[in-house]
Design goal:
The chain is an alpha/beta fold. The chain is built from 14 helices and 21 strands. It is about 30% helix and about 30% strand. Strands 5, 6, 7, 8, 9, 10, 11, 12, 13, 14, 15 and 20 form a twelve-stranded mixed β-sheet that branches. It has a three-stranded mixed β-sheet with strand order 19-16-21. The chain has a two-stranded antiparallel sheet with strand order 1-2.
Length: about 550
């Protein structure tokens, strides 16, 4: 690939009494620009960071960026990082050690809560096999072999029991009527039950169905334990009393999504249900269903290595900072969530190894160039985001007084492997954010996209109309500016999101380099700005 050659030359321009760094353009002589609502505008006359330091940050971010090394370690070496799992705790401690290595202050892991049972997913495997019998001259079966027809891509709910080794069994369609049930009842023991494919409903719909089925089976067990007759139990739940191996259902998609059982946080080890429920991709379902329709037997082999450990299990955020030189008690936060879902095959890359690696690299860049911001820049790797922003909610609750008074803003990178392409800003924040992000514009050029990877500040009026379901929302809820970076670029986020495809290879290096450098520049500039970022103005009650 031929790289787009560009030299970022530093010069000083007096703009409304403020020294600004000149970046942008191919010749290094054009004036810096801010981008607001998709249009290039003059950089607002607000004093930001030292231009020479900004130039060093840009140089380090372009020429010595290590974001992919961080991502590789998180995804390939550690792997998926479910909240409360052994791997996410390993990741928490590794991030802490990296911050210490780079010389940041106060690197530590901070407990935000506990869970009743730890869940660690080990290697999982599933395949469709065909039974091959060898018979003697009298027709007696003397040997049985199982030949692999197809390897399946699967998922199963976190905080469930596994298979306790490889389980092979015939596949039987879920009976719908009492007559169908009576016909297959003697064959159900050890069988895998194929659940009829439902209309496509997307990820949350699939998760909801699995949770509903889980709760229905739990309710059925209780009814039987309380003396209710099996005949009164609905067939989809009645089959669990016949010793079935488990259930197979499909997403009606080539993606298999992972979620958790209801009540996962409080569910104790002794209360874990024995049911095994496996989600398979649509083509695997079609293969099985087609053979059954043709009247041919089909068997599957499944091995789910699930380890459940009795708690209480502590859960952590990792925190470190670069102390401010003039106003160390005032803070700019750069953050991302370290946890991920843990379905078989997933390495937790785009959600959210990428954001975590960007946060780490922003810290490394600033430390390596010796940045001395006036305010403290704090770096936080959250966990519990996938289960409802648990880590950030607990952090805000614990440190609410400091956050309300002293946090300028919290930035979250949680949109996948595209680049930090913009921010949604209330109108009174636009100038600050436009000035803070201006140095990144017209610096990172994509030969593939044929454009610069710039940052657009979107004026959303009186309120910052930002994406609402990541850790920045915990700050917005208490009136402190929280920002979810717009992710721009060619990557298909939904392909990897919570699926078996979420692997290291999805990471787009040029985008992540821009993101790490952008996060570092934005944090440094805001940490050197005249004041904290303006808050959203509260609307006066109607008279």
């Amino acid at each position: 690939m031929v790289c787009h050659v560009r030299t970022a030359v530093l010069s000083l321009v007096l703009f409304a009494g403020t020294a600004l760094a000149t970046f942008g353009g191919l010749d290094g002589d054009t004036k810096p620009v801010a981008i607001v609502d998709g249009k290039e505008v003059a950089v607002p006359a607000i004093a930001m960071g030292d231009p020479a330091m900004v130039a060093r940050i840009l140089k380090e971010g372009k020429e010595n960026n290590q974001v992919m090394q961080h991502l590789k370690h998180l995804t390939k070496d550690i792997g998926s990082r479910l909240t409360g799992s052994s791997r996410v705790e390993t990741a928490n401690k590794w991030c802490k050690s990296q911050y210490e290595l780079w010389g940041l202050s106060g690197s530590h892991i901070e407990e935000w809560g506990t869970m009743a049972t730890r869940f660690d997913r080990g290697p999982c495997f599933a395949r469709i096999v065909l039974r091959d019998e060898t018979k003697d001259d009298k027709g007696v079966v003397t040997k049985v072999d199982y030949k692999e027809q197809r390897v399946m891509e699967i998922s199963s709910q976190s905080w469930t029991k596994g298979t306790d080794g490889l389980v092979r069994g015939p596949v039987i369609r879920m009976p719908k009527t009492d007559a169908e049930y009576a016909e297959v009842k003697d064959k159900l023991k050890g069988a895998w039950i194929l659940v009829e494919a439902q209309p496509a409903v997307g990820q949350r719909g699939v998760r909801s169905r699995l949770s509903t089925s889980f709760e229905a089976r739990a309710a059925a067990r209780k009814k039987v334990a309380d003396g209710e007759k099996l005949e009164s139990i609905a067939i989809p739940e009645r089959v669990i009393f016949d010793g079935v191996a488990g259930f197979l259902s499909t997403t009606r998609d080539e993606r298999v999504w992972t979620g958790a059982v209801p009540g996962w946080r409080e569910r104790k080890l002794e209360d874990m249900a024995p049911d095994v429920s496996v989600v398979i991709r649509m083509t695997d379902y079609d293969c099985i269903n087609s053979r059954l329709t043709d009247g041919e037997p089909v068997e599957v082999e499944i091995n789910l290595e699930h380890k459940l450990t009795a708690g209480p299990i502590p859960c952590y955020n990792t925190i470190a900072e670069i102390k401010g030189t003039e106003k160390p008690d005032e803070i700019v936060i750069i953050s991302a969530h370290l946890d991920s879902w843990d379905g078989p095959g997933s390495q937790g890359c785009t959600d959210n190894g990428t954001g975590s690696s960007v946060t780490l690299e922003a810290a490394r860049i600033l430390a390596s160039v010796g940045a001395k911001p006036k305010r403290t820049i704090r770096f936080i790797n959250w966990t519990g985001e996938e289960q409802g922003l648990l880590g950030s909610h607990a952090y805000v609750a614990k440190h609410k007084e400091e956050i309300l008074a002293k946090v300028s803003a919290c930035f979250v990178d949680d949109g996948g492997t595209n680049y930090e392409g913009g921010l949604a800003a209330a109108e009174n924040m636009v100038d600050y954010l436009a000035a803070a992000t201006a140095p990144i514009n017209n610096v990172f050029y994509s030969e593939i996209d044929k454009k610069f990877l710039n940052v657009n500040i979107r004026n959303t009026g009186k309120k910052a109309d930002s994406h609402g379901s990541s850790d920045h929302a915990s700050f917005n809820q208490v009136g402190v500016p929280g920002f979810f970076w717009d992710e721009s670029g060619r990557a298909d986020y939904s392909h990897g999101w919570h699926t078996q495809h979420d692997k290291y290879e999805l990471g787009v290096e040029e985008y992540l380099k821009q993101s790490a450098t952008c996060a570092a520049i934005t944090a440094y500039n805001l940490a050197c700005a005249p004041d904290l970022l303006p808050r959203v103005k509260k609307e006066e009650p109607a008279k």
